[in-house]
Design brief:
heterodimer; A: mainly alpha; globular; B: alpha/beta; Rossmann fold; Alpha-Beta Plaits; six-stranded mixed sheet; 14 strands
Chain lengths: 241, 293
């Protein structure tokens, strides 16, 4: 896996060298959009706690979207068959790409953190534990979307829907949900971040729910991806252009 | 170690209810041979290759590659198989040829940098790719792309090489180059399965040919060896500098004054076909007619 990660990193660096403007443009527009949302939420709620988790959001976008978008790209440009016939499983390659994207996303996240420090004058500290849970959750959901891409091919609009729903979840704090909040937190993706990222006094209950949520989505991601991958192989959908 | 590189038992494969590709397919393919796979469009050549590589799962039945079950020991099978897909698009066009090779070399298990570079350099030289391998793939011609895909297929020391239409759209020179390299690797013990519509190419290179017919794969009888049949080509010599090269073949002058001659050759005599096509292209000779003697 380590060597594969190096190969994916090298490929990303080569693409960065070949198309620097594209990647710089993406980063800038990303910082502008997420930055604007963060400042709007801050102005609306007035609390620094509410925007802390929102800063993790850029990391999730890459984690969720990269497996399906890179798979779709491989199918579209015709490289999927080459990737499939390698010594690695498709899942290993997609997870590596997802991690690569996670690391790349640290760059815009750092810029956003600096902007928060300058304009809001707050020392925002993000919990590494929350980031770890976000990573596991994000990979699980990313793999479900990759499985869907294998079967349905074009899931771009569905992916946008997932992005928007998760953004809504990050923007609207959980404290506004009254009945059945624990059930909501146990099963809704990324609520583990809300539970561990903002609360200063984390209880055993919230921690257990956060861990359960993470395990639930990573397990679901594994099971659904495997099932959809085998369905796609059976239906001959892999590598069809 | 089994004698067969591929062994297919009672295989059924269909897409949906109405499209049956293989029905109770049983086929054994011997190792260390170059195998040709022929059949009309839509007969299942590419599906068969995808079944062998595990990209498509059968409805029922068993596929063994080098004694390994493709369904159950999929990862082990992936390590001994290499596939050249039937498309010149299977490359990252926004990377250079070398960057593509390096990326896929790692994916195919060539982890040691020194060893990897040595293998890559050797293959680049064998396929005459030095002049363009560091350029971006988007600037490549079809022949360049095809050579690059072929090179990638050779990486990772596979036991079984699956080539899906490897000469699709290639000119004579590059086709010969690829043909020679296939033969060279086959001599080293590589088993090769080539799916192609080019019967002449298969006739020339393959040890055994299989045909997909009525949802089954059967060996083509040696009597179907039609491309080794002889034919007579009538030429008009326009430039007599070509005559010396023509005389290497069964050359017969019919009308010296008009420069008309005939030559008896075999249909799979690629050296002659190259010579003749070059002569016609350079207006040194004109083909008058072709006939079976």
């Amino acid at each position: 896996m380590y060597i594969l990660f190096i190969a994916e990193t090298k490929k990303s660096i080569n693409l960065l060298k070949n198309y620097p403007l594209d990647i710089i443009g993406n980063t800038i527009s990303f910082v502008i959009v997420i930055g604007a949302i963060i400042f709007a939420v801050y102005k609306f709620t007035g609390g620094i706690e509410d925007i802390k988790n929102l800063i993790i959001y850029p990391l999730l976008l890459g984690l969720i979207g990269t497996p399906s978008s890179s798979l779709r790209e491989d199918v579209e440009i015709g490289t999927f068959e080459q990737v499939f016939n390698s010594n690695y499983t498709v899942a290993e390659i997609l997870i590596c790409r997802s991690l690569m994207s996670f690391i790349v996303s640290l760059f815009p996240m750092t810029i956003i953190l600096i902007l928060v420090k300058i304009f809001i004058n707050s020392n925002t500290f993000l919990s590494p534990f929350a980031i770890l849970l976000a990573l596991v959750d994000g990979i699980g959901i990313g793999m479900i979307l990759a499985g869907l891409t294998m079967i349905y091919r074009k899931i771009g609009s569905f992916l946008n829907l997932v992005y928007l729903l998760s953004l809504a979840e990050f923007v609207i704090p959980h404290k506004y949900i009254s009945p059945g909040r624990h059930i909501f937190e146990a099963f809704v993706p990324f609520s583990n971040i809300m539970l561990t990222g903002t609360r200063t006094n984390m209880t055993l209950t919230t921690l257990s729910i956060a861990v359960f949520n993470t395990l639930f989505w990573s397990f679901l991601g594994y099971v659904l991806y495997k099932s959809m991958y085998n369905t796609a192989r059976k239906a001959g959908k892999l590598g069809r252009y | 170690m089994t004698d067969n590189i591929v062994s297919v038992k009672n295989l059924y494969k269909s897409f949906g209810k109405n499209v049956i590709i293989f029905e109770d397919l049983n086929v054994e393919i011997p190792r260390n041979k170059i195998i040709g796979l022929i059949g009309p469009n839509g007969s299942g050549k590419t599906t068969f290759i995808k079944l062998l590589s595990g990209m498509i799962l059968p409805d029922s039945g068993e596929i063994l590659v080098d004694g390994l079950n493709v369904q159950k020991e999929f990862l082990a099978v992936k390590r001994i198989i290499s596939v050249m897909p039937d498309t010149d698009r299977s490359l990252y066009w926004n990377l250079s040829g070398y960057e593509n090779i390096e990326y896929f070399a790692i994916l195919k298990g060539l982890y040691n940098k020194r060893e990897r570079n040595k293998i890559i350099e050797e293959l680049i030289s064998e396929l005459n790719m030095e002049s363009f391998v560091f350029k971006k793939v988007e600037s490549y011609s079809k022949g360049m792309k095809q050579r690059l895909i072929f090179l990638i297929a050779l990486l990772g020391n596979p036991k079984l090489l699956l080539l899906d239409e490897p000469l699709n759209g290639l000119d004579f020179e590059i086709s010969s180059l690829i043909k020679d390299i296939i033969l060279k690797f086959a001599k080293k013990g590589l088993s090769v399965i080539i799916s192609s519509h080019d019967k002449y190419f298969l006739e020339e290179i393959c040890d055994i040919k299989y045909i997909i017919k009525d949802k089954k794969i059967v060996i083509v009888s040696p009597t179907n060896n039609f491309v080794s049949k002889e034919l007579k080509v009538y030429f008009k010599i326009l430039d007599y500098t070509i005559e010396k090269s023509f005389k290497k073949y069964c050359y017969n002058v019919i009308d010296k004054e008009k420069g008309i001659c005939s030559m008896q050759i075999k249909m799979n005599d690629y050296d002659f076909l190259h010579l003749a096509s070059e002569a016609v292209k350079n207006k040194k000779a004109e083909i008058l007619s072709i006939a079976y003697p």
